[in-house]
Amino acid sequence: MAAVSTEVQIVNSFPADKLFKILSNIHNLAPKVVPEIYKSITTIEGDLGVGTIQSHVYGDAVPYTTSKQKFDVVDVNNFYVEYTVFEGDILSDYLDSIAHRIKISPTADGGAVYRHTTVFKCKGETKPTEEVLTQTNEGYKKVFKAIEAYVLANADAF
Asked: What is the C-alpha to C-alpha distance for residues 71 and 139, in angstroms, rounded to an integer?
């Protein structure tokens, strides 16, 4: 089984703990802020901790419609989350799963760095194209920047 990974890194002015809190609420924020990407994110099972299963329904701006993911690691103290996409047409016909690792690190100036590593676990030798990897990272950036703008415009909500 082949695996291909990609990573996006975004520097942000929010403190690490605030950014983690904001992104922990992505299931509510993303459908509101970027409905063209996320129509809905529903928690099927769990309390957003380890073992939680969520269902995603995607918008018209992406080439797939559904996915299910399970939280594997949620480390609030270290601002770290791992989850695995295990079902849905997002996996196409060549992916077994997609593993995500998100780490938020404080910066010396009081801001934070958001790192999102994605590992595509392939069923066989077929791998995601460079175009898919680029679209993946650009999608993360777009969602991040949209949520950042929303939070800045609605500062009292956070």
From this structure: 20
